Amino acid sequence: MYFHGIPFIHLKRQYPVFQSTDECWQRTRLQRKDARHLMKKVGFEPVHLLKSSPSYPIRTCLDECLHYGDVVFAFPTLPFPRIQLSPHEWGVRSLPMDTARWVFCNQSLHVAWLNDHFPLIPIVTPPYKSNRKRGVIYRNKNDGETYNNY
Predict the structure, then answer these.
(1) Which of 9, 36, 61, 66 has a beta carbon 3.0–4.6 Å from 3's, enabling a disulfide?
(2) pTM score of the predicted model
(3) pLDDT at 22 over 90
(4) 113 has a pLDDT exceeding 80
(5) DSSP 3-71
């Protein structure tokens, strides 16, 4: 299975097809550099997904995706063109949301919208609890540096 996590607010903007677009995302300089590199290397900036495997189980994929967003789509396969970005990460040019096998949402207030827009796709809600804590970004008052606390 392939997994894509997304914040609900971005999901509503991208509906009905996942695409990597500048207008939806605030990007850091590093993210912009990475996007330019991928454009040169593969000809498009991919939508990123995690692929489960025996060494990278579904639970790990869900935890990683929930770290990024409160909605996770699970797909049985990916369309072409597709590219393997790392041992567990894949990318596609675009991905129709209605091809998902199921959707996980950890915010019950979004379930009605998901059911309305994806009536044929099962929507899974808690009690699933991620093992991973969301990163907290804070500034050290003494040196003014920014740190990521995972």
Answers:
(1) 61
(2) 0.79
(3) no
(4) yes
(5) EEEE-HHHHHHHTTEEE--GGG----HHHHHHHHHHHHHHSSPPEEEEE-BTTB-HHHHHHHHHHH-SE
